[in-house]
Every structure is written in C-alpha cells, then in structure tokens.
Amino acid sequence: MKNILILTVMLTMLMSSNAQIADTIIKSAKIYTADASDTFVQALAIKDGLIIYTGTDAGVNVYLGAGTTVKDAGGRLILPGMHDVHMHPLEASSTNGSSCSLSSAETNPENYKAIIQACGSTPNANGWVLGWGHSIYTLLNATRAPRLILDEVYPTTPALFMEETSHSMWINTAGLNVLGITDSTPDPVGGHIVKSKWGTVTDVDGILLDNAGDVAISVALVTNGTLQTNNYEGLVYYGLPLLAKNGITSICEGRTYWKQNYIQTWQQIKANNLLTCRVALAPWIYPDDNDATQIPAIEALYDAGDDMLKIRQIKLYSDGILINATAAMHDDYEAGILTTLGFPFSKGLNYIDASRMTNLITALETKGFDFHIHAIGDRGITESLDAIATARATNGDIGARHRVTHLEVVKTTDYLRFSSLNVTVDMQVTGDFTNPNHWHDNDNFIGVTRSDNLVPVKSIYDAGAKVTLSSDWDVSSASPFVGIQNSLTRAPQNLPNVATAVKAYTINGAYVMRQEDKTGSLEVGKYADLIMVDRDIFTIPNTQIGATKVVFTWLAGNQVYQDAVLGTAENMQNSTKFEVYPTVAHEEVYVYFTGEKATDSSIDIYDFSGKRISKQKADPDSFTNNEIKIDVSGFSEGIYILKFSNGIDQTKSKKFIISK
Ligand SMILES: [Zn+2]
Q1: Ligand 1 midpoint to CA 460 (Å)
Q2: In the 8-state DSSP scheme, what is residue 242?
Q3: Predicted pLDDT at 17
Q4: 434-448 pLDDT, tens digit each
Q5: 601 Cα: distance to centroid of ligand 1 (angstroms)
Q6: In angstroms, what is the span from residue 468 Cα to ligand 1's centroid?
Q7: What H or E segment, with its residue span, contains residue 568?
Q8: Fewer CB within 10 Å of terminal CB in the chain, N or C?
Q9: C-alpha 72 to ligand 1 mean position (Å)
Q10: Where do the structural domains in the chain lie, given as residue ranges?
Q11: Measured in angstroms, how far is the CA atom of residue 199 from the centroid of ligand 1?
Q12: Which tops the pLDDT comparison, 340 or 483?
C-alpha cells in the first residue's frame, strides 16, 4: 500500500514536471464533466483538440505557455457537446420540399384549395408539386374523395402533400397515375392505400398511409443532380449551422435513404471539410424490398468510418404511429376510431413484422451494425425486444448496441427487458404532444388506460435501462435544452435530475454512437467537444432550462459556433456585466447589463435604511446598447442601493451616491 502511494506521488511529480503546454485553457468556469461521478471542475486544458487536464484554476496553470489562449469563463457553465441521436437534418434542411404549408387546424378540406392555389408552387426537378402540414382528420371530413379536391388545383401535374406527422400522404389523380396505383393495386408492406371510403367500392381516394406514402415520396424525390445539390446546400448553409447553434456536436441520422444518395451527400460534405458535428448514418430498411437482395446491399454500405462519419447503424420501422391507428398494439384500437377510419386492421400494422425483423437483426448485427428501431405501440415494442432476444440466442452476445426509439405505449412487463437485453431506450419529449397534458388526446384511439404514461421515461429509467433523449428534428425543436426541461417537468414520467438528463444527451448518446471512449464527457484524453451556455441549468428552476442559449460550441477544440452577442470577448469574461454609474450621481444614473432580460425585468432602488424609494419595470426594449437611464433628480442626498433583476435568473445590486 505504502509503495503504491509513493509510486503515485512520483508519477504525479513526473507528470507535472513534464506538463504539456496547452493550446487553450478555459478557467473560472463551472464545468460539468458528465463523468461517472458527476464531477464538476473549474478549469480544463486542451491540446491538439484533446482534453489534457481537468481540475482547478490553480492546477491548470501548469499547462500555461507563451502560445496558450486563456478563456476566462466568468463562472459560466460548460457542458460536454450535445448528442442528438435521432434527427433528420437532411430532410429538415433540404429545399426539395415545399414552402406550401397547410394548417392542420383547418376543418374543411375544401378550404385548402385556395391556399394551395395561392402557393403557386412549381414542380420540382422530378415534375412533382409538393406540400405539407395538413391533418389526416381534415381530409377524413371531406364529402368527396380527397384526390378530387387536389385535382381541381392540379388536374395534370402530380401533386403530393405530406401530412403533419409524415405518416400519410395526400395525392391527386395525376400522381396516382405516375405511381401506377389503380383500384386493384394491393397494399404495400407496412402501408395502406385508402380506397372506397367515398363513392364506389373500388375508388382510390387519394390518401396513402405509412409505407404507401413513403413509396410515393421516394418517387417524387428520386435523386437527380438538382435534388442532391439542394440536399447538400441545405445541410451546409442551414442544417449544420443550426445544430452548432444548439450546441449539438454529434448526431445520428434517423433514417438514411441510401437509394436517394443521402450517403453521398454526407460524404461530399465531409470531403469538403464542412462537417461541424460527428455523424452516424443509419441506412433505412425499405419495407417493400426483398431482403434476399436488401441484406447484401446494406452489408456493402457498412463503414466503420472515422471519428467524423460512420455508417454502422440501421434504421428499421417496426410500426406506424398512434394517431393513424398504425402503431402496432397488442389489443384493438377503440371501436369508434376503427369505424371512422375504416382501415382493414384493428391492432395497427407493421412496416417490418416480427419474423422479418428477427432475420434482419440476426443477419446484420454480425456484420457490425447496431439497429435503431422505430416502435411506438406496445406490440411493436414487444416484437422489437423479441427479435433482439432471438438474434442474441442465435449469435450470442456480440456486443451489439441496439436501441428502440419513440416508445409511446410500453407494456409494464417489458420495462425490465431493456436493461436485461442491453437495449438503449431512445425517447423524445421535446414536442409538447408527448407531455402528460396531451396524453389523453389519444383516448379516442387507445382508450383512457393505455393513454396514461405515454413515453414512460421514468418507469424505464427506474428499471435500469440506458436512456438517450433526442429531438427527432424537425418533428420537434432541435434544442436539447427544451428536451432537458421537458424530461424533468413531465411528472409522473420524468427523469430524476438535471445530471441524468444531460447524460441522456451526452455520454449515453456517445455510447450509442460507439464513441464514448472519445467524447460524450469532459475527461482527459477525450476530444474537447464542449459548449458554454448562458445560464446554470443546475441551479435555475427546471421550467427555465428550455430557454438556455449556447454561447459557443467547440468540436475537438475548434469553435464551430459563437453567439454574436453573448460570445464576445468581453461577455465571455463576465457572464453578465452589470454596472451602475456614475457612482456619484446628480440627475440620473445608468444601469448597464449585458445578460438576457425578460419582459418582467425590474429595477428597484432602496435608501440606505432599506426602504424602497422607487420601482420600475425594465423590459428589454427599455435598454439601448444594454443601458437604461434612471431619473434620480428627485432623490435627496445620500447613499442608495440599486437592485436589478433580469426576470430570469439573476438579481444584482450596486451602491451609488446622490450628491447635490
Ligand atoms: Zn424520426
């Protein structure tokens, strides 16, 4: 024991005497490392993009050299770079879609005609007019087949409108003709062509559900040079900057349409050195493909890659979504909704059924792929776990890192299976629709009991599962801080504390991306993927976390985002600069405050006995260049205390003197 102690002391001395000189030092910070013991440190040192020290302001000085840049964080919070392990940045950024958006709040679908007409959309490079945003329930209110409504605006041009959830499409007659869909076309796997709900029993009505709609959009967006350029430019000029602004340094693409050249687009961005976050792609299993040819085609896409771009995940849909009644349920949907919808299934549908899923996982996990499985209904989730278990029985535990995503209705008997099968649970709570006040929006579909506890993040976390949080952007906001806030405020199904929620966005995401040894926490030897934020999310009320702004984002020590105001050198050093001047005033004093101000910011002035002399609101508009003038001409001589509250998280006070 004594020898080990001496050895440790000698090693420590040796290390400090050979201390490297850092490129950058960050000090006077509150740094949450997200390490195994939830350690907070004051300072860290970076060299060649890697963290070489974490610890105290005093300790970091050993790494200071002539060429070292020192950033004084002014007490601000530093976090590991955020991981968003399920999002759709290419589709969210592409200009291939349409700016013609419809309101899902509309109740009469005939009213959409004038809006679509006013959009005046021109066909894309494949000859299709595209739009989005309506609700399927608006179309179900129609008094005639919905395709006929679209036909009045586009009698000869194929037109396709994506419903707000993306799980169904509204199509006109010209579009159906291009796709070759007739009265006798059978449903594709995982989809449904709505027929005969209006008019004759053989009529195609113009609503394509789930994979029937996916097949249509893949034709409308079949890749050509123009569309691929649009994807590239959308990501470079819009998508990637937006991620950096949100503090996101690593992402998993939620679905890589490999037949539409998505992989080539990402590879081109990387080749041009324009990637500002680490990316894991997940080739999509096309439900209507034959697996005998699809499996080898996907095997050929495998690329363990490097620290910036990997292709070793697979996205697979087990089922659809609750509000189409296509999420796969163990028990029937409610009778009323089944009558309204008239779909030929009562327990939802499968994009990929249980036996096919088992075959795919069994074949592809041995090639090094981890599965990312969309499952929303309790049956879809059970089947996903069953398929993983069966593959494991065949292949043994080969260290696969599969995960299930969405998980809206989960059978209590499945809670413990995630940890026992080492399946990560990926949940989205950013969108309001998963919050408890919206649970019972689903009563018409699945009844009251099954609508309770949707997205049961607490139950599954408590059962020992590894949990990641993700945005599914642009289904929901890309801000991890909105997700963190919602994960904490959705009792009874909430995460226990801020650190757990941050880990769900950092180190756990890194595990899913097979990079937890390189990033995801701020520890010596890992990349300096980190962010500074404008407030301390560990101390403010949970309800204020969502408004957090990122000050800067670093990837491997390189700045990929800086807030134009918050990130200036002056503001960097003083998280919020607060001044009251002149200190000896006659007619007026000025309050200077650089931090964020809410509309209920206020300035109170007290005399030296503590009696309040004046009170005024100080909303952001009353500041000019962060400065506000206060009239004190009526004050008598003496010492006063000015107290400023920004209405968010800070209250500051300063003394000034009135002299006549
Ligand atoms: Zn998604």
Answers
A1: 20
A2: H
A3: 46
A4: 999 999 999 999 999
A5: 39
A6: 14
A7: none
A8: N
A9: 39
A10: 22-79+519-574, 97-220, 225-518, 576-658
A11: 35
A12: 483
Say how many Å lie between the CA of residue 305 and the centre of ligand 1: 23
Residue 202 is predicted with a pLDDT of 58
Give distance in angstroms: CA of 293 to centre of ligand 1. Answer: 25
Tokens 């413990």 locate to 416
CA of 6 to the centre of ligand 1 (A): 54
The β-bridge partners of 533 are 77, 550
The alpha carbon of 465 and the centre of ligand 1 are apart by a number of angstroms equal to 21
Dist. CA 166 → ligand 1 center (Å): 10
Ion ligand 1: residues, CB < 5 A: 254, 472
405 Cα to the center of ligand 1, angstroms: 8
From the CA of 481, how far away is ligand 1's center (Å)?
Answer: 19
- Read off the pLDDT of residues 230-288 as tens digits, 9 standing for 90 and up: 899 999 999 999 999 999 999 999 999 999 999 999 999 999 999 999 999 999 999 99
How much distance in Å is there from the Cα of 336 to the middle of ligand 1? 29
Segment 205-235, tens digit of pLDDT: 999 999 999 999 989 988 888 889 989 999 9
Q: How far is the CA of 354 from the centre of ligand 1 (A)?
A: 20
Mean pLDDT (the chain, rounded): 91
DSSP of 247-300 = TEEEEEES-B-GGGTHHHHHHHHHHTT---SEEEE-BB--TTS-HHHHHHHHHT
Q: Cβ distance 427 to 435 under 8 Å?
A: no
Distance in Å, CA 368 to ligand 1 centroid: 22
The answer to whether the beta carbons of residues 276 and 560 sit under 8 Å apart is yes
CA of 187 to the centre of ligand 1 (A): 23
Architecture category of domain 97-220 in CATH: Roll (3.10)
What is residue 647's predicted lDDT score, i.e. its pLDDT?
84
Strand 159-162 vs strand 129-132: parallel, antiparallel, or unpaired? parallel
Burial of 540 (0-12, 13-18, 19+ CB in 10 A): middle
Query: DSSP class of residue 587?
Result: S
Architecture of domain 225-518: Alpha-Beta Barrel (3.20)
pLDDT value at 298 more than 70: yes
**Domain 576-658 belongs to what topology?**
Immunoglobulin-like (2.60.40)
Cα radius of gyration rounded to whole Å, the chain: 28
Q: Is the pLDDT of residue 316 over 80?
A: yes
Task: Tell me how far the alpha carbon of residue 279 lies from the centroid of ligand 1, in angstroms.
Answer: 15
Q: What is the pLDDT of residues 327-375, one digit of tens each?
A: 999 999 999 989 888 888 999 999 999 999 999 999 999 999 999 999 9
The reply to whether domains 22-79+519-574 and 97-220 share a CATH topology is no
**What separation in Å is there between the alpha carbon of 428 and the centre of ligand 1?**
10
What's the distance, CA 176 to chain centroid? 34
Cα 121 to ligand 1 centroid, rounded to whole Å: 27
SS3 of 122, please?
coil
Determine contact, residues 376/427, Cβ cutoff 8 Å.
no
CATH 2.30.40.10 fits 22-79+519-574, yes or no: yes
- pLDDT score of 18: 53
